Amino acid sequence: EPKNIRREFQEALRDGHPIFDEAQLSTMITVVDSPHFFDLYSARNDVADREELIGGEERAVERYDDMASIEVERKVVDLLVEQVECADHIVLNKTDRVDDAQRAR
Asked: In this predicted model, what pLDDT tens digit does every residue of 66-79 receive, in sequence order?
């Protein structure tokens, strides 16, 4: 979730976290899986229903508010939109696997 990553980096920078002695966040890049993007964008699935998006056997997505974890449902399309909106640069991956009909979409 890129908004959370960016916010965490900004808070750590503001708090003078020592990681910034070695690293900095200057650019957010999103890699779009071109052949599957529009199918996922059109899907109505929750992120929690897509094991490849959450990993392992977890069946819920967590959000952290003031150190408290609560279970929430989030649509795959919302995550895709957030990733594209937060990106400073977008890399279109596997464009050679996209046919003319998909490109026209």
From this structure: 444 434 578 888 98
The bridge status of strand 61-65 relative to strand 68-72 is antiparallel
**Packing angle, helices 34-42 and 76-86, rounded to 10:** 130
Residue 52's region, left for phi above 0, alpha for psi from -120 to 50, else beta, is: alpha
- Measured CA to CA, the distance from residue 105 to residue 101 in angstroms comes to 7
**pLDDT above 70 as % of the chain:** 81
- Mark the ranges of the chain whose per-residue pLDDT is less than 70: 53-72
Alpha-carbon span 48 to 85, nearest angstrom:
21
